[in-house]
Design a protein that fits this description.
The protein is an alpha/beta fold and about 350 residues long. The chain has two domains: about 130 residues, Ferritin, core subunit, four-helix bundle (Ferritin, Up-down Bundle); about 200 residues, TIM Barrel, CATH 3.20.20.70. About 55% of the residues lie in helices and about 10% in strands. The chain has an eight-stranded parallel beta barrel, surrounded by six helices. Helix 1 runs antiparallel to helix 2, helix 1 packs across helix 3 and helix 2 packs antiparallel against helix 5. The longest helix has 28 residues. The protein starts with a helix and ends with a helix. The mean pLDDT is about 95.
Length: about 350
């Protein structure tokens, strides 16, 4: 019995340590609140489960650190990237739970059964984390060019100019009803854009999925973000937010970034009241995911917008109305990348 308790103690510690490493990586590096919460809950559930059947004194009494033949193993020379650290510790936790499940049968079948369910809960979270790590990210400094899909010849002409300049991200937006046309042009746009330029589809997760775009951008009245995350677990999802309450909800539901505005009056949406630079600054300070500003932004006011602390900007007219769209993009991209 003492040997069984010793194994359970070691595996229990290993599982909790692994979960804590994953939790901190998700919380402080990936800034993923929903996944962090799931890992934290699993860690707490594991402790609650074990201590329902075994006391801390039982486990501590069985611990024989000085007799552990592996205590001198030295792995200090190994270095891993962040994603590797997270994935290695997820696997480590799964192995520890399996060990606990098997050996707990000798003490309590009920305890073994509950650990079994916790292990499969871990596997589901591991899938979500893996898909999260596979997902591309918008760069720390980002210029997003929004292309309104209209007459095909004009759209192709402007898109080729944009592709040549290579912005960090392009969003294709279509308000018509010809879905096959929308899909065709999205697929074409993906082909001409540089590989490093992210392509997002406005409003339509189905178009994003079929066209193999990098993500989708949603409005407050579009398909719910949580539902889209089920459809597109490995894609970027952005959400338009006008205030802090909407931004907090977006973060809670797993948005990768938010877009907010209009910052200045804009002809694209003249009915929208501008939020201004002061409100934008206040929002950015309270948001933990990237923020893109939109609305009336151009080369002349770009520096003022960047001074609010946003990660980047999304522009429409500044590029579409420019006599030289490619030059405008290059200059704005240079300004954004060089901003401290």
């Amino acid at each position: 019995m003492n040997e069984i308790l010793r194994i359970l103690d070691a595996s229990f510690n290993r599982a909790r340590e692994g979960l804590r490493v994953v939790e901190d990586g998700l919380r402080f590096s990936l800034n993923d609140r929903p996944l962090t919460f799931q890992i934290k809950k699993l860690r707490h559930d594991l402790s609650k489960t074990v201590f329902s059947y075994l006391t801390p004194e039982d486990l501590n009494r069985s611990r024989q650190v000085l007799l552990d033949s592996s205590r001198h193993d030295d792995f200090r020379g190994e270095k891993y990237r962040l994603t590797e650290i997270i994935m290695r510790n997820l696997r480590r936790t799964g192995e520890a739970l399996r060990t606990m499940e098997e050996y707990a049968k000798n003490i309590s079948p009920a305890l073994s059964n509950k650990i079994h369910h916790l292990r499969f809960n871990l596997y589901q979270i591991e899938k979500q984390v893996t898909l999260k790590l596979m997902r591309k990210e918008i760069p720390p400094r980002c210029l997003c060019v929004i292309l309104n899909l209209n007459e095909e010849k004009k759209f192709r002409f402007l898109s080729e100019k944009v592709a040549k300049a290579g912005p960090h991200m392009v969003q294709i937006r279509y308000k018509g009803e010809d879905i096959p046309y929308f899909l065709k042009m999205t697929c074409w746009l993906r082909q001409i854009l540089p590989e490093e330029t992210l392509l997002l589809v406005n409003d339509r997760p189905d178009i994003c999925l079929v066209a193999r775009a990098d993500g989708v951008h949603l409005g407050q009245k579009d398909f719910p973000l949580q539902a889209v995350r089920i459809l597109l677990p490995d894609k970027i999802i952005g959400l338009t937010c006008q205030n802090l309450s909407q931004a907090k909800t977006a973060i809670k539901n797993g948005a990768d970034y938010i877009a907010t505005g209009p910052v200045f009056p804009t002809a694209v949406k003249p009915e929208k009241l501008p939020i201004g630079l002061e409100r934008l600054t206040g929002l950015v300070k309270k948001v933990t995911i990237p923020v893109l500003a939109i609305g009336g932004i151009n080369e002349d006011n770009l520096d003022r917008v960047l001074a609010t602390g946003v990660n980047g900007v999304a522009v429409i007219s500044a590029v579409a109305a420019s006599a030289h769209p490619d030059k405008t993009i290059r200059q704005m991209k240079k300004t954004i990348e060089g901003y401290l």
